[in-house]
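Async update (no meeting this week)

Hi team, since we skipped the sync, here's where things stand on the single-chain job. The sequence we agreed to prioritize is pasted below, unchanged from the tracker. I ran it this morning and attached the output directly underneath so nobody has to dig for it. Comments welcome in thread, and please keep replies under the output.
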Amino acid sequence: MLRYYITDGRRQANRAGWLLERMAAAAAAGVDYIQLREKDLSAREQFELARAAVERLRAFPATRLLINDRLDVALAAGAQGVHLPAAGLELAAARRLAPPGFLLARSCHTSGEVAAAAAAGADFAVLGPIFATPSKPGAAPLGLQCLAEACRLPLPVLALGGINAARAADCLAAGAAGVAAIRWFQQADCGSPEASAAASEPNAHSR
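Output:
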């Protein structure tokens, strides 16, 4: 199961320090991707934080850092990819500007958007919200059936929205390549393999 941690440090007093600690903890727990999503920061603040994150994560080469929306910041900071919103930069344009091996992820909200992302050359899609989530209070959950439809397309799909250990198992059963989350991966276990394995055991939902 691929695990994709999306950061949110808006409520933290020592924001940069706290985020760097959480990213390092997530990487140490084996999280595959980290999306630095502090979009209320200025471009310079995002760059400085991204540079610090790149340095901090050198000790965890299996974890790859993506920057939300800002391809320029991602390239300048030396991140491994960019996460493009559904209405963001066109994937074809991003691919022309990016070096070989640079990751392009796309936010999607329908299976049609996943199909378009696949056709445009995305490396993977993040589809959501699959379940109701406080971070998207006005968004109707897409549900597991929509996720299953999207996962039949030729592109890895990560499920986002209301994800916890038990729901991660449901998403994998629907065909997802992995899950994306803010709150779960900012908790102490960082969506640890142990928690995910427990969720996949028989009767996990009845606990």
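Quick observations from my side:
Confidence is low (pLDDT under 50) at residues 197-207.
The two ends are 22 Å apart (CA to CA).
Reply here if anything looks off.
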